[in-house]
Amino acid sequence: MDSDVEMMDEPAALPSSDALVCGKRSNVAKTSSAAAASNLASRVPWVEKYRPRLMKDIVGNEDTVSRLTIFSKMGNVPNIIIAGPPGTGKTTSILCLAHALLGENFKEGVLELNASNDRGIDVVRTKIKTFAQKRLPLADGRHKIIVLDEADAMTEGAQQALRRTMELYSSTTRFALACNDSEKIIEPIQSRCAVLRYTKLSDAQLLKRILEICAIEKVNYEDDGLQAIIFTAQGDMRQAINNLQSTVDGFGFVNSENVFKICDEPHPQHVTRMLDACIKSDIDEAYKILHFLWGLGYAAEDIIGIIFRVCKFHPMADLVKLEYIKEIGLTHKKIAEGLGTLIQLSGLIARLCRIVQPKAPAGR
Fold first, then answer.
1. What is the C-alpha to C-alpha distance for residues 265 and 261, in angstroms, rounded to an integer?
2. HSE of 172, CA atoms in CB hemisphere, 13 A
3. What CA–CA distance (Å, rounded) separates 8 from 1?
4. How far apart are CA 295 and CA 303, in angstroms?
5. Residue 191: exposure state from Cβ atoms within 10 A (0-12, 13-18, ≥19)
6. What is the dihedral of CA 108, 112, 117, 123, to 10 degrees?
7. Tens of pLDDT, residue by residue, the chain (364 residues)
8. Are the C-beta atoms of 344 and 334 separated by less than 8 Å?
9. Which of 221, 234, 241 is CA-nearest to residue 268?
């Protein structure tokens, strides 16, 4: 009995030092893994982080996206070509369509290639043909999908080989081509595909998406900063999101000055003042601004591009604007041919100042 009492009175065994160390290590490991996951998430580019996963989340080109949505519901998708400017959602639309069609079989049923790199005839004969021959059990009306990004960069020989592959495996595989210029794709492939065209996104569509990202990421911004992002993006959603993230990472605050520093473009305010001086025929003031921009190290191509974009929306008489755009276009042509000098831009300023001067009476 005494022994039983003694056993009951013994204090509970304390954990050994090794157990404590192991417990600490496990907690540290959990904390470090959570921190690593958090750091990894913070390093993901916002372009990928906020890439749409569903058809309904795609911004812009509503008519074309609605056709793809019908394809995703009905199944039996035709071969498609999506053509349009960069950053308008061509590849994203194809991937969203593939997710909707294949669901859990997405990884096994989709082959994504960037034709800018994988564009030779060997790729068509090996990767594409091997994938097309692979057997994969899918529901009725569902097919494997081969995504060719930047398809207009493929060589003509590769396109000819691709045409034959599309014919042979049409019962099991569908091809989705994304390109900037559909004219560079041979006609036999175009005739085998439904051609869908995307256009640049509007400023309102860009602004809506940018505001959503700013709210999620808790970005500090001013209205002129968002306007600058939209101005530099020119309808390119990818460019807009990249510029937003770069500005936030570089300065922590989004305003027009920080955005144009990150994008390394001439500030439109300087160009606006230069055009105002030209309208007043004040060539000295206009040249002073031009010389200032040139001294900052901007190329003639950058300066003439900003002059054109600012001139389009500048509040001036329509006849004057038409003449200005004509002169800007002629100068841009000369610069594109290799005459990108300060003299070319100075001559443009002189011609713009002369346009608004009153005509001298005849005989004088």
1. 7
2. 15
3. 11
4. 12
5. exposed
6. 50
7. 444 444 444 444 444 545 444 444 445 444 444 444 445 455 788 999 999 888 888 888 888 888 888 888 877 788 899 999 998 888 899 889 888 888 888 888 888 887 666 666 777 777 778 888 888 777 777 888 888 888 888 888 888 888 888 888 888 888 899 988 888 888 988 888 888 899 999 999 999 999 999 999 999 999 999 999 999 998 899 999 999 999 999 898 999 889 988 888 888 999 999 999 999 999 999 999 999 999 988 999 999 999 999 999 899 888 999 999 999 999 999 999 998 999 999 999 999 999 877 654 555 4
8. yes
9. 234
Residues shown for the chain: 364
pTM above 0.70, yes or no: yes
- State the SS3 of the chain: CHHHHHHHHCCCCCCCHHHHHHHHHHHHHHHHHHHHHHHHHHHCCHHHHCCCCCHHHCCCCHHHHHHHHHHHHHCCCCCEEEECCCCCCHHHHHHHHHHHHHHHHHHHHEEEEECCCCCCHHHHHHHHHHHHHCCCCCCCCCCEEEEEECHHHCCHHHHHHHHHHHHHCCCCEEEEEEECCHHHCCHHHHHCCEEEECCCCCHHHHHHHHHHHHHHHCCCECHHHHHHHHHHHCCCHHHHHHHHHHHHHHHCCECHHHHHHHHCCCCHHHHHHHHHHHHCCCHHHHHHHHHHHHHCCCCHHHHHHHHHHHHHCCCCCHHHHHHHHHHHHHHHHHHHCCCCCHHHHHHHHHHHHHHCCCCCCCCC
Residue (of 300, 163, 345, 310) closest to 231 by Cα position: 310
**Other CB atoms closer than 10 Å to residue 120's CB: what's the count?**
15
Q: How many CA atoms does the CB half-sphere of 104 hold within 13 Å?
A: 3
138 CB-contact burial (10 Å; exposed 0-12 / middle 13-18 / buried 19+): middle
Residue type, 100: A
